[in-house]
Write a structure and sequence with these properties.
alpha+beta; NADH Oxidase; 6 helices; 4 strands; binds flavin mononucleotide
Length: about 170
């Protein structure tokens, strides 16, 4: 799909068809994340592919935004590969994992899949429910699957602030 079409087509899908996502598409989404830039190439992402019935059931304990997607990626940062900028003192990990996830989200659209980015959960609950290692910092979930026939964009999708209201040319 042409890039402009990808970004115009994507919206947060919150209702999924009862249809599995092909393994090749899951792999292609993971490969798209791998191509993302990260600060000093630190690549601090840790990704859990939640696909089995038992793991998907656990998502319901984790978040009220538990949509019926056949695949959910739990995107974490790896404390062992976190880069703290020596200039700003800021952790680059939130930037890095967000870019990885954005690549994955847009690749899902490119493959004809719907997706929804979800942050509505407590980090400590994700660690406990999925028995994550000590170095994993959960950031967000990416729900992925074929959109159901009933899926439509929420009104927020169309509610854009004017570019002139937030861009300043200096
Ligand atoms: C960082 C982030 C966190 C989000 N968390 C949630 C969430 O917890 N639950 C949800 O239903 N949607 C969530 N969303 C989706 C946004 O609500 C959605 O992207 C926004 O309203 C614009 O709509 P659109 O994606 O359909 O264009 C999140 C999106 C982002 C980028």
């Amino acid at each position: 799909m042409e890039f402009q079409k990808v970004i115009e087509t994507r919206y947060s899908v919150r209702d999924y068809a009862d249809r599995p996502v092909e393994d090749e598409k899951i792999t292609a989404i993971l490969e798209a994340g791998k191509l993302a830039p990260t600060a000093r190439n630190s690549q601090p992402q840790l990704i859990y592919v939640i696909k089995s019935e038992s793991a998907r059931q656990k998502i319901k304990q984790l978040t009220p935004s538990a949509f019926n997607a056949p695949v959910v990626f739990l995107i974490c940062g790896d404390k062992n590969r976190e880069l703290i900028s020596s200039t700003s003192g800021l952790s680059m990990m939130p930037y890095d994992v967000s870019i990885v996830q954005t690549h994955m989200m847009l690749k899902a659209t490119d493959l004809g899949l719907g997706s929804c980015w979800v942050c509505q959960f407590k980090r400590e609950n994700a660690v406990e429910i999925f028995n994550l290692p000590e170095n994993a910092v959960p950031f967000s979930l990416l729900f992925v699957g074929y959109a159901s026939n009933k899926a439509t964009p929420h009104k927020w999708h169309y509610d854009s602030v004017n570019i002139d209201d937030y861009v300043t040319y200096l």
